[in-house]
UniProtKB/TrEMBL annotation:
GO molecular function, one term: metal ion binding
Cofactor(s), by name: Mg(2+); Mn(2+)
Nudix hydrolase domain mapped to chain residues: 28-171
Superkingdom assignment: Eukaryota
Keywords recorded for this protein, A-Z: Hydrolase, Magnesium, Manganese, Metal-binding
Transmembrane segments: none
Record flagged with keyword Nuclease: no
Signal peptide coordinates: none
SUPFAM superfamilies: Nudix
Parts forming coiled coils: none
UniProt name for this protein: NUDIX hydrolase domain-like protein
GO BP term (any one): coenzyme A catabolic process
Source taxonomy: Eukaryota, Fungi, Dikarya, Ascomycota, Taphrinomycotina
Amino acid sequence: MIEDMLARLARHASPPQVTAAVQNLPATKHASVLVLLYPSPTHADDLEVILTLRASHMRSHAGDVSFPGGRRDPGEHAWQCALREAHEEIGLSPDTPFRRITILPYYLAKNNLLVSPCVAFSPTNPHDRWTPVPNLDEVAEIFNIRLSQILQGEGYDGRWLDWHDSRWKLHKFQLHGRHDEVEAPEPKIVWGLTARILVDVARLAYGKNPTVYDFADELGDSDRIERAVRGGHFDDAPRKVRAKTANKSGDTEDTVRRKIQRGAL
């Protein structure tokens, strides 16, 4: 079962073709995240994934749940960046044995970064060989969830938004995670880009789609990225008017973020 899940993920081993304009974007417009999977110690034929809760004092995405990851340095490729960031943020040793399964297509972050999810697999619980050490400058907490929680829609509440002239599904989960073998004391809100990547990883791994919520069929954000490039959203020149995303109620993305964090959405 686990090997079947990994094989389905590995079929997406190379990102789709993108235009020269996207290929020529500088390293500062690229980021990578590490999606580290391993067999669940509590549920047979299920995979767990390591997530972080970002520190509340961070300038961006403060208090959000995210994968270990960040911007690429010049000359780095996707895997180098993902592993470096995982080492810096959660203390994951570069020597920790795991299989590189795939790099999913680019996803577009709200700050117009092209995010490459690097999917890896550890055949045993990585906590057995590595003690998570959060970098408190960036990470407040390290925890795990099961992919089946995503596919089954545990604590789900999502909605469609308009972004870059297209419809984008804002997923939001309220999930009970675990600190290694112990259930985390309170549920975590997983939303936005992290939730979007988790939904795609879960439906690829299980070879089936969620039935309790809607989702975007497209894997990654290739079309949206092309529109953002044509619209000049990756230009380095300062923008006097920040592009905002509104939902049907007229809420901007910043308003949506505040509502989600206080439980109003």
